[in-house]
Amino acid sequence: MSQTVEIHDQIWKVEDIQQNIDWSKQQPWKFMEFTLSDEHEHCLICYWTIFKSPESASGQAYKFNSNWLCQECYGKFVEK
Predict the structure, then answer these.
(1) Would you say 12 and 46 are in contact if contact means Cβ atoms under 8 Å apart?
(2) In angstroms, rounded to a whole number, what is the distance separating the alpha carbons of residues 22 and 12?
(3) Rounded distance, CA 35 to CA 42, Å?
(4) In which element (H, E) is residue 49 found?
(5) What is the DSSP secondary-structure string of 23-48?
(6) For residue 68, what is the enclosing H or E element?
């Protein structure tokens, strides 16, 4: 049976996201606010939408080069 994890109220198979988790653990992420209007990015691990928003969960995330991680994925997989 596959191991699963809940991210933003969705169940993911760990084996489906493990490669991105492993890569993410090796990068120097910087916490920042998403400031581009009319644009968005997606979390590298769970595809959560990151966009300019007053809500922290959607408007603030971790960035490395052109990659983004939502706060939940960073907390569950990188910050450990």
Answers:
(1) yes
(2) 16
(3) 14
(4) strand 49-51
(5) HHHTS--EEEE---TT-EEEBTTT--
(6) strand 67-69
Angle (CA) 45-70-2 rounded to 5° is 35
Nearest CA-CA partner of 30 in 66, 77, 76:
66
Token pair for 11? 């169940």
- pTM of the predicted model as reported, rounded to 2 decimal places: 0.92
Asked if 51 and 34 count as a contact pair (C-beta separation under 8 A), the reply is: yes
In order of 31, 33, 72, the CA distances from 5 in angstroms are: 23, 26, 12
Query: From first to last of its 80 residues, what are the pLDDT tens digits of the chain?
Result: 579 999 999 999 999 999 999 999 999 999 999 999 899 999 999 999 999 999 999 999 999 999 999 999 999 999 96
Q: Is the distance from CB of 63 to CB of 32 less than 8 angstroms?
A: yes
